[in-house]
Amino acid sequence: MSSPNANLFSALRAAFPADLNAVAIETDQGLLYTWSDLDRASAMMANLLASLQLPPGARVAVQVEKSVEALALYLATLRAGLVFLPLNTAYQTSEIEYFITNAEPAVVVCTAKNFGWVSKIAFKAGTQNVYTLDDDRSGSLLERAAHHSDQHTPVQRSADDLAAILYTSGTTGRSKGAMLSHGNLLSNAQTLKDYWDWQAGDVLIHALPIFHVHGLFVAIHGALLNGSKMLWFGRFDPKGVLAKLPEATVFMGVPTLYVRLLQEPGLTREAVQNMRLFISGSAPLLIETFKDWQTRTGHTILERYGMSETAMLTSNPCRASDGERRGGTVGFALPGVTLRVVDDAGQAVPQGEIGGIQVQGPNVFKGYWRMPEKTAEEFSADGFFKTGDVGRVDADGYVTIVGRSKDLIISGGYNVYPAEIEGFLNDLPGVAESAVVGVPHPDFGEVGVAVVIARPGATPDPAQLLAQLKAGLANFKIPKQCYVVEGLPRNTMGKVQKNLLRQQYSGLFA
Ligand code: MLC
Ligand code: AMP
Q: Which of 387, 389, 402 to mutate to test the pocket of ligand 2 (most atoms within 8 A of CB)?
């Protein structure tokens, strides 16, 4: 007897409502997509992918603007049993070149605007199939898919087979591709469906990008697995979201989205009276934002914590019977997730004390793409993944993140690795050395500041340095300020003391 198909798409498809002509997605452009539309569009694309006769595990790399067709492409990749590899639209040539060369995708999908340079990189890396897809329902992907049947049976996959690779930057060296299986993603989605108490009639406002865990997995799997309609925003627009709140019940955002919504006078108790749940994650939610939201709306934001390698790990409770939502904490380890806090030697610290957070569970990824040594380093001998986050667990089981052992800046929910920016800066003419640190920012939570030492005799211009960085790196990675200084604070070992720099520049955007 054959085992049941563990293809994630099969589980999502099984949750579609009986009435396939009901609206599944309403976009901010006024377009309506039914469940049948999603099913048929993803079937046609899956048949196109199948016609390429790719080996199992072949990667489909996608750098396109947010659209429902891009979502259909994700579903099609699952259906076809291939591996989805989403890429931030802000990535520039050298970043894309690294991802494509490293992942060796069989298929690359990009915007028509970028086709020239992306296809050049892709063909050089051995990719045979490059399609375009734009957010106005145009592109060669759709033209080619139109020739295929709108019926497709999901390819048989086991829970351990790969469904997606998400690149996450490394503290040293280049980005690592976190390999997530069908089982990783489905188990997490099912846990969240239950823990967040998804209900019949829930409607989700989807205003996040769909190339990272939050928008792609947490939000989309949540809605699909519940057969819930989505109100779809191509990009976050506070006024637009506010206008749609009366039609919605669930909203998910990074803290910046909450900060920006709070700036809208229209955010009132009346505006949110139909809402059931506001969820925040991807970056720390300031306690002020948590409290301001309570005062303005009467709702208590549910904060949760996760990462690309693991999807969601902890969550504040949804149901009152599971406990209260505590601001400043990320709640409890999710059902099925084991979370422990350890010291530098890997020994569990006494309860309530601070240490490195390690996790285990069916959601924890399969390792970094083609980096077995890196993968081994990031797991303990007994199989726990070292998150790189530092925190504690209180007597009631609430987890608080107090910092990170990894040198990472989280800006508006995007991760920026100082080492990457410093590497670019150090290669620029006139720069001897640099340090990039994160400082508090009222809108993005945290932003980067670059501190540079000039080469003898050189007088680099800070604005020029930032402009040069901008030519090579995604825009959100560019430090918001740059200073050329005489010297950097160092400890007795000569190591730059970034904590002192952070202190020195902490008031810059206050
Ligand atoms: C935009 N800019 C940023 C930025 N976003 N700067 C720092 N950090 C950011 N996050 C800058 C641009 O470089 C540009 O500067 C200017 O702001 C305007 O760009 P924009 O694209 O028009 O910005 P905007 O649309 O306002 O975007 C802000 C935002 C966006 C908050 C809506 O950043 C966003 O969608 N963030 C969500 C990220 C997310 O989904 N994270 C989840 C990761 S998953 P200039 O100078 O070039 O004009 C994860 C796991 C988990 O972490 O637990 O969920
Ligand atoms: P990413 O690599 O983009 O998946 O980012 C994951 C990282 O985001 C985690 O390791 C944490 O450092 C951080 N993060 C996610 N959610 C939260 C949260 N609620 N509070 C604090 N940090 C968070």
A: 389
